[in-house]
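Recall from the previous chapter that SMILES is a line notation for molecules. Here it describes manganese (II) ion.
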Amino acid sequence: MRAAVTVSLIPEVRQGPFVFTGDLVQACQRAAALGFHAIELFPEDPEAVEAEELRQVLDDCQLSLAAVGTGAGWFRHQLSFTSSEESIRSQAVDYARRMMDLAAAFSAPIIIGAMQGKASGGLNQATALRYLGHALFQLDEHAEALGVTLLYEPLNRYESNLIHTLADAATFIQGAGLRQVRLLADLFHMNIEESDLPGALRRAGPLLGHVHFSDSNRRAAGWGHTNFPPIIQALRDIGYDGYLSAEVLPLPDAESAARQAITAFRQWVGSPAAG
Ligand SMILES: [Mn+2]
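With both inputs in hand, we obtain:
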């Protein structure tokens, strides 16, 4: 397992669970200095990031790109896969595809979180899920062509009303015949929705593709009341070898949150070689 930290370039969501915000070069330098292996990037838009510039910064800092978030599609453009308007749904898929093109240049997956939307405005749950399945199916095909996976993140009940648990997400993914989609297990959302975190991770098994390494209060691991050792043990037991990515609030400040996240990683996971 390897340690990643979130970097947001989206001006609209400075209040979000992003450790570093604003300046990509500075963020990468801090992430590397603290010992992270990778960053998880939330670009302003797919075209706002020059792939060559990003590659240069990552190379200079000896960092990998763990994943690329698509949240700006919703926060900046209100694009959602479950909009009641067909044109918005298709723009949303197009936006995510372009983000995937950027991420695939680094063999990184994109994350589908906020863009999944919710059943609202007269749209019922069954229809919303059908729209979501249709969007993911189109992205699944694009991912297969590019040779990458994509990550679907179940959100807690206060953020979406579609799918809340890893088990329901796995059923949905398998039922829709999606081949490139993996589960993103966010330990903060899971703390609200799951009855047994290690058990849910074990059942996710090989479908698990990414972990948001966050405590119960969305602060850095170790600064809430989540019991991490059994969670790490479950990840080891299923042979998970992906990222633990610190998607946490920058509290009391970005540097302290990042330092605590990597300290917790070293305490509970150890060196990357110990996996
Ligand atoms: Mn998350």
